[in-house]
Amino acid sequence: MKQFSILCVLLLVMVVLLSVFLGSTEAKKNKGNRKVKAGVCKYDRKGSESPCNTTTNAMTITLNLRKGDPASCAPSKTVSKSCNDKSQTKKKKVKGCKYERRGSDWTECDATTNERTKVMKLKAGSNPECPETRSKIKSCGNKQKGSRRPKK
After folding, report:
1. Which is deepest, 27, 30, 32, 110, by most CB within 10 Å?
2. What per-residue confidence (pLDDT) applies to 36?
3. Which of 53, 56, 76, 81 is nearest to 66 (CA)?
4. Smallest Cα–Cα separation from 61: which of 69, 53, 73?
5. pLDDT tens digits, one per residue of 97-106
6. What number is the average pLDDT over the span 20-40?
7. Angle 35-37-42 (CA atoms, 0-180°, nearest 5)?
8. Cβ neighbours around 151 below 10 Å, total
């Protein structure tokens, strides 16, 4: 009788261990099969861009669906973006450009933009690919005399 009870306990322990093992392997199988949340549509970051429309100063970008339910998400989405975006208007930098700073003066302060401009000419002997002139723009500060911190 004692051997029978020990055998039953061992059998029960084996059944529990087997069920735990099978449950964990089933969870691992289903881990990769996650469903996308309902209503979440993800689109590619880069899409096909149209040329800049000069009248509206905007361009359209078509983005394609990357993640999401095709039944509830549109297969593509059109986004409008300004042509003045800094990433679109990056100028090619040319090395070896030197400009005359001393020969040019700042313009008077423009009341509408609150800015003043300095146009500098290219120095002789600079790289020929450089632009002939370079403009610097500063805001007009209302500096009062004595506004600097005193020196220690």
Report:
1. 110
2. 46
3. 76
4. 53
5. 888 888 788 8
6. 62
7. 105
8. 4
